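Lab notebook: predicted structure, single chain.

Context: the supervisor wants predicted structures on file for every construct in the current expression panel, including those that have not yet been purified. This is the next one on the list. No modifications to the sequence; it matches the entry in the shared construct table.
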Amino acid sequence: MTNSPAEPLATRYALFRGARIRLGKQSWSFAVGICGFSIIVLAAIFAPMLTPYDPVALDFSSALQAPSWSHPFGTDNLGRDVLARVLYAARVDLQIGAIGVAFPLMIGSVMGLLAGYFGGWLDALIGRAIDIVIAFPFLVLVIAIVAMLGPGLVNLYIAVTLVSWVLYARILRGETFALKRREYVLAATSLGYSHARIMFRHVLPNAIAPAIVFAMSDYALDVQLGATLSFFGLGVQPPTPEWGLMIAEARSFMLTEPWVVLFPGLAIVTLSLCVSLIGDGLADRARGIDV
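Prediction complete. Output recorded below exactly as produced.
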């Protein structure tokens, strides 16, 4: 039995249509995430132009005012403008996410690259260190380290770096272990290239993509972690505005004046959602269009 000439054409059209639909989904999630994240960053940068109020200035005569034209997000129990505090707090939370990802990514990438490339005792040593850190719950370990070092942003960054680097090391170790057997790496070795050149010019650029994709979801988790520690008094300290700290300071009024916790809570959710969409888009692009 012979196939109809129309069948290959129909099959190609179906495959093309499926690929186009998947590409559209990838583009939409990535584009929406980038747009939302860019808006948050711009709002944080141009906060002084978006609100005339000082985020830490007290005005007891305006305490707990409902949202209005003069105070679009209302005021808190100390008369501070909630919109101003949300905008200025974005600077702190964006910084928490960026630094909380940057240092673990750099340290974990180097450690995983070394472990996967050289193997042997170095791989065993780094692997045991990873196993020890992973044996403890992430949040509990971070809280324990911050509690020992004391509250504050710097100690928060130290705690996150000491705990999070193992996640990136595991990713890079596995990727490096697979890539070092590729033909181009074997060719570079046969040409006499140094280990450093092979690792950082040939292996790392091809192994880093999964770590970058993971970093986007880790960014959202670090923002939530910073808000959680600030809520418990271990992160950002007053009067510096931070979303988690704002919720902690206003939790006594959440039933009678809900706007004092609603807007910082929405800010945390919005930033986390935007970063997650970016991560999903990057993951789809890294996998490519499988037709």
